[in-house]
From TrEMBL:
It comes from the Eukaryota. This is NHL repeat containing protein. NHL repeats lie at residues 58-88, 219-251. It comes from Rotaria socialis. PROSITE patterns: NHL (PS51125).
């Protein structure tokens, strides 16, 4: 239960006193008002906007992944490496890349995409979008080793075996299938991990889009993220430049719009989106969360 309403900006005497705006929501921290901002804590990097390349510094960090034990990984983009941090320590350990951008087996380009760690095997998956490929460091954490290409070959292209600026990866719960938001090709590709032993002959299967950039139900335009239902295999895509979220059933040739405007209209009303990027589904697959990027908000939609 909420206690009596407080005046705007007045001090709270306990953690469950309420706001004075029309939401009447109890706050969990000692500040009354229509908006309260939590104090952040720097857990990696110098914390004062200083960039660098030593084992404490970061330079344009992008992707992040947190393990169940709260260790976490950061894509240190401009340092062409992935850093691992233990809980409570700001000293990073390089687990992929060598700090020099390149395409050798020990190098990364400028990794501006996502990273993912298979919690069962500790394999580290990296979207090396500058090199048009996806990499894996097998049982890499916490040891930096050579990287294995699992999708793409370093050349941008639209054939089944190539990628163009891959942005996001999603590994299914069995570790068998890797889904890639192939941004430059306006499609989502599915790669079977059993094919990585012969990458020269490996290729992906298009499971969403692949018909050029557009607004039609069989098209995507600049997809930036993908998640997959563990219940029915449906593929959810952030169709970023179309300002919508598309759902593609297994084997479907067209997608259906589940959030945003089907015709790509952008806006800030509750039913519209503006350049959505990040996607997540809760554990029981009741709700879809997305980062509505240009609207500077996170939206939640109930899955029907």
């Amino acid at each position: 239960m909420c206690q009596r309403q407080k005046s705007l900006g007045s001090s709270c005497n306990s953690t469950n006193e309420c706001r004075t705006d029309l939401n009447y929501t109890c706050l969990q921290f000692y500040q009354c008002g229509p908006l309260s901002v939590l104090q952040g804590e720097s857990v990696a990097g110098y914390g004062n906007a200083t960039a660098g390349n030593d084992n404490i510094a970061l330079n344009n960090p992008v992707g992040i992944y947190v393990l169940p034990n709260n260790d976490f990984f950061v894509t240190d983009s401009n340092n062409a490496r992935v850093q691992r941090y233990s809980l409570g320590s700001k000293i990073g350990q390089t687990v992929a890349g060598n700090g020099i951008a390149g395409s050798a087996s020990t190098q990364l380009g400028v990794p501006g995409g996502s990273i993912y760690v298979d919690n069962r095997t500790q394999d580290l998956y990296i979207a090396d979008n500058a090199n048009q490929r996806h990499l894996v460091s097998f049982a890499g954490p916490p040891n930096a080793t050579n990287l294995t290409v699992v999708a793409g070959n370093g050349t941008s292209g639209s054939s089944a075996g190539l990628l163009s600026t891959p942005r996001h990866i999603y590994l299914d719960t069995t570790g068998t299938y890797l889904y890639i938001a192939d941004y430059g090709n306006n499609r989502v590709q599915l790669w079977n991990m059993s094919s990585i032993g012969n990458i020269a002959n490996a290729s992906g299967i298009t499971v969403a889009g692949g018909n050029g950039a557009g607004i039609a139900s069989n098209q995507l335009n600049g997809p930036r993220a993908v998640v997959v239902s563990s219940k029915n295999g449906a593929v959810y895509v952030s169709d970023t430049s179309n300002n919508r979220i598309q759902r593609w059933a297994v084997g479907a040739s067209t997608g259906s719009t589940i959030a945003g405007d089907p015709n790509g209209l952008s806006g800030s009303s509750p039913s519209l989106l503006n350049s959505p990027i990040g996607l997540a589904i809760d554990a029981d697959e009741t709700h879809l969360f997305l980062s509505d990027t240009t609207n500077n908000r996170v939206q939640r939609f109930r899955l029907i």
